[in-house]
Amino acid sequence: MTKRIVVISSGLSTPSSTRQLADRLAADSVAQLRERGVEVEVETFELRDLAHDITNHLLLGFAPPKLEAVLDKLATADGLIAVTPIFTTSYAGLFKSFLDVIDPQSLTDLPVLIGATGGTPRHSLAIDYAIRPVFTYLHANPVTTGVFAATSDWGGGGDGVRSLPDRIFRGAKEFAELVERTDRSELVNDPFALDRPMGHLVGGLAGE
């Protein structure tokens, strides 16, 4: 059976180190899965291309067609690679806004590989204190290794402990192992699941 992986990059610039990290995480994950004899389909989405649709969804309570298509693909995915830049010690606002419009049920038991980029390695802790708890709250299953890439990592110096390629490989290996053994088909096909959270059905967001 073919596994489907969705990659979300919330970098704001072009070219983007956030997208670069997302692509490398995806490539290593695909390689790991294919070594296990698992076929993979990968779809990558840049959140900056969906920024207006995400805002409209937050304001109006329903997703425009382009954003709706991405949300549907995420709901039926077998794995998610999510990468965000770190601003002011936390994830990007666009990244959080996207998470806010996802049906929480669509992430249940979903394997997630978290990546983040920033100017200094000191921001690497944001993966564990800011990003991982959000996915845990949404009942997703983030792998143990989160991959942070500082500006210096792209030059090959790394953090002096483990190089960026090594960290990417380790995170991708954990992710591939989890994707391979996770079966979300019953969750995806649950006939009693709501298409959207109740807050969306009444024209607003829950907890607003």
TrEMBL record:
InterPro entries: CE1759_FMN_reduct (IPR023932), Flavoprotein-like_sf (IPR029039), FMN_Rdtase-like_dom (IPR005025), NAD(P)H-dep_FMN_reductase (IPR051814). Residues 4-154 form the NADPH-dependent FMN reductase-like domain. GO terms for molecular function: oxidoreductase activity. The keyword Transmembrane helix does not apply. Keywords: Flavoprotein, FMN, Oxidoreductase. PANTHER family: FMN REDUCTASE (NADPH). This is NADPH-dependent FMN reductase. It comes from Agromyces agglutinans.
